[in-house]
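Hi W.,

Here's what went into the run:
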Amino acid sequence: MKKTLSLTVMITLLTSSLALAAEGAAEETLFAGTIAQSIAAILAFSILFGVLYKKAWGPILSGLQDREEKIAGDLAQAQQSAEDAQKTLAEYQQKLADAQEQTRQLIEESRAEAERLSAQIKDQAQTDVGKIQERAQRDIHAAKEQAVNELYSQAATLSTDIAGRILKRELNPADQQTIVDESLNELRQANNN
Amino acid sequence: MIDLLMVLASPVGHITDKPLLTNADGSLWYISNVTVMLVVNAILTMLLIIPAARRIQTGPARSLEDFRAQGISANLVESVCVYMREDVFRDVLGDQTDRFCPILWTFFWYILVCNLVGLIPILDITAMFGLGHHGHGIGGTATQSIWVTGALAIIAFLFYNVTAFIKDPKSYLLHMTGGAPIFMWPIMVPVEIMGTLIKPFALAIRLFANMTGGHLVIAVLLSFVGPVIHALGPAAGGGVAAVSILGAAGINMLEVLVGFIQAYVFTFLTCLFLGQLVVHEHEEHEEHDEDHSHGSAQTA
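Here's what came out:
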């Protein structure tokens, strides 16, 4: 709009000025030229188009098309790769989940086995302890009896010796044994009572 | 007053085409500034695009680096070409985009180079050396000539009409009825024919007027400098001249933008006119249906 206005103003001024200006300037017009310039333009454009068509536009178009195909191919490949990766990831995740499940089962089984073994060992230990305790008690009891017997025996012997000395006479072994046995029996009875 | 009018009269002469070689009576300019610039700009366009194309093309090893444009100019050309192809042409032409990219790219780059090279004051530099028509210099903006923009518009007009007619003559002729019922054809057909013929005029005038307008403003601003200093003295005249130069510099920057925009607009409109003729509604529906069924299949 600005250009058109400027052009209109200029043309008006110039038209007025041309009428008043020097004689030589009267021939000057914005439409200067002849048909030769049009022919030159057509020839120049045609030759330019022909040369560029052969030397430039073909390579440029093929370059752009190659690039489009390359980008489209790379995009498709990238999409395929992404899908493959997703699939592989899903497979690995499934495998990982399976492995975790197997591990969990193994741990559960191990724990159960350990608990079972622990209980078994505990039972066995308790049984063994019981047996040992029983044997120990039996041994203690036997040792006690033996000790008591020996004590009785020694006490009897000693008593006999003492009694013999008191009585100033010697006891033969048979009397002595008789006395010992009697004393032991009395002692046992007294102990049992 | 007359001095001022002389100053204002000279800018038109400064920016318009000048003959360098004519026939005997001067009615036909065999070679002119515009002709020279057309050739120079075509060569510059080739020098910009062809080496870049080699660096954009996929390398033989087809490694990752071979798929990448190498160098600044190649990246510049590629970014513009890709933008035009994907964001401008494809929206209009659909799957026929690559078929028409070459000529549309050529329109864009040639007009762009013509517009931008026209901003370089080659004309003034060569004038300093006394070259050109009566020492007027050689150079200028090729797209500032209505003869050139008209020729480019005619090429575009022939391109999209011939392409559409060859592709599907029946559809092309039916297009001239505007899709109206038969009893409306006596009105619609002339209207459509007029519309078809007006389109190249619109292309030509738009490019010519936009390129001329800015250049004329710059020329007017710069043409003030000498006479104003001469008339008002170095102090007052210098101040006015400085404002003129700054204004001209600003407009020149704006012209860079206009150069890009006008190249884009010419190419975009050519693409749009082509799309109206070669991309038919039923094809779009078919494409849409195909996309839809393809999408459904993928979903399934």
